[in-house]
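HUMAN: Spend a minute on the protein record below and explain its fold to me.
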Amino acid sequence: MPPFVRAAPQQTSWAIWLAAIVCAILAIAVIITGIVVFAIYIIYQPKMPYIKVAYAQLSKLVYDQSGLLEIEMVLHLFDGDNEEEYLVVFPKWAPVASSKAAW
């Protein structure tokens, strides 16, 4: 039976060590960023926005033969938290909003 021959240990390349260190730093940075974002989310506890539609009017609805749908819509919205009124008008897909509209 031949005697057990031990192989000489091989040295790891410096490029492999550098890549491992960079990957470890990136992994730690991603974990810390996730913890910070989660902590900020828990601290502020965002709630769902609450909007009431007081009045809605469809002024114009045109569907032509080419498949173009043209609408004009007016919405009177109230913010649920502080009861501020907003007027939103949608002419030709360009929404325009103004605060405290008089109607």
